[in-house]
Amino acid sequence: MLQSTRTERSLLRQLLLLALPVFAEHTLHILVGVTDTYLANHLLGTQGVTGTALKLAHDTNAAAGAAVGSIAYITWFIGLIVSSIGTGATAIIARSVGARHRRLANKVCGQSILCSSAMGVIVAIGMYLLAEPIAHAVGLHDQAGRFFVDYIRILVIGLPFAVIMFTANACLRGSGDTVTPAAAMITVDIVNFVLTVGLTYGVWYMPELGFRGIAIGTSAAYITGGLLQLVVLLIGRKHLKLFVHRLRPDFHTIKRIVRIGIPAGSEGLLWWIANFAVVSVVNRLGNESATAHNLAIRVESFSFMSGMAIGTAVATLVGQNLGARNPDRARRAVYLGYGIGGGMMVLLGFSFIAFSGWWATLFTDDPAVQHLTAQCLFRTGFIQCGMAGSIIFGSALRGAGDTMAALLSSVGSVIVIRCGGVLIAQALGADLPTIWLILCLELLTRGILLYSRFASGKWVHAKV
């Protein structure tokens, strides 16, 4: 009994040490995202404005808000590029550190940076050329479409640096270092905040660029982060260092990374395609619905950031304990993580139910948008426990390298419920709150499926 208590305390300490820096990082990152959303929804002032001028201001702000909300799906896509490399890097590096095989960890780090850099450049070129077709694909036209295209063509300048930064973070977290990625991301977010606010409104001796200022600030922050993390890896941390000779292609190591990463990337891509379809449907409901959808997700992110922080810690502990051949400790870490992360998400879920109207008023003064946002938040408050399961148990499977199982566990719910349900809802003329009911059902189902896979224990035998 005494030994079990000591084990739980040790795991709790490790979880918190790994998760707290990530939590701080996510908190600031979400606040920056909220700032971008606020800036877009207050691009033109409405105080003291009446009549036609007030309607024009609301229409312009709604168009900017819809564009920024859709851009969030593009930045999410950038994350998917990283996940196809980063998940494999995290799993192998974590096992290597657990087994005290530092040379392999450094090799995987070098090959991951090489692959992600190439992918970042290719995707940046493609997104620049396809900016207008992408805007039409997500249902953005006229002013909202122009905002979207301008943002994309500025963002792609910093995109390759963003991919390098996120990949470096994945490598460092696999080694057990969550402090350095958090410090880097906090620096990036501070740069982002200062530049976006300064360039949008022309304060702090900066030129007033309006909507383009939001995009320039984000792109410049990505460049800062990518360069910073390259320097960190070249200098080296406790368990990890980037050596220049490790940047030469090693196809055996790349194959190992990709074998784990492709299922994770495919799972993320599947979910992204589904959500891309969702945002296309929502944008066609009008700028008010598009803005409300974005605002509800921004508010909900205050909840799921705690699950993501715990999920990052869980993935690292699972990989390291499997590398040290201690699967029981890995299993305990996951259940303890769910208790902490799930508990925090459920508490915030209660606040979405009880204070949905208050949350909605924080980011917009448009009554119609506030009403729709509150309805969406009220619905999502009831499924935070299931969403926590999808994040934390999914992270545990990926940390173990059991990425194919995580993919297969998600396919059914994403295709049948998320995609199929939303398309049926569109055909029936459903409104935004009804669409959010479908999204909530899918998250709850996915959480149950991923927990079932974890409970089976087959992830213990995953090969990396």
**N-to-C order of helices and strands:** HHHHHHHHHHHHHHH
**Overall helicity:** over 70%
Radius of gyration: 22 Å
Distance, first to last CA = 34 Å
Number of alpha- plus pi-helical segments: 15
Number of domains: 1
- For the report, how would you describe the main beta sheet? none
Number of strands: 0
Structural class: mainly alpha
The parts where pLDDT drops under 50 for at least 5 residues are none
Strand content: under 5%
Describe the global form.
globular
Mean pLDDT: 87
Give an account of the 3D structure.
α9 packs antiparallel against α10. It is built from 15 helices and no strands. The protein has one domain. Helix content is 84%, strand content 0%. It has 464 residues and is mainly alpha-helical.
Secondary structure elements and their pairing?
Elements: H1 2-41, H2 51-98, H3 102-129, H4 131-137, H5 142-174, H6 179-201, H7 211-235, H8 251-283, H9 287-323, H10 327-354, H11 356-361, H12 367-380, H13 384-400, H14 403-427, H15 432-456
Helix pairs in contact: 1-2, 1-6, 1-9, 1-10, 2-3, 2-5, 2-8, 2-9, 3-5, 4-5, 5-7, 6-7, 8-14, 9-10, 9-12, 9-13, 10-12, 10-13, 12-15, 13-15, 14-15
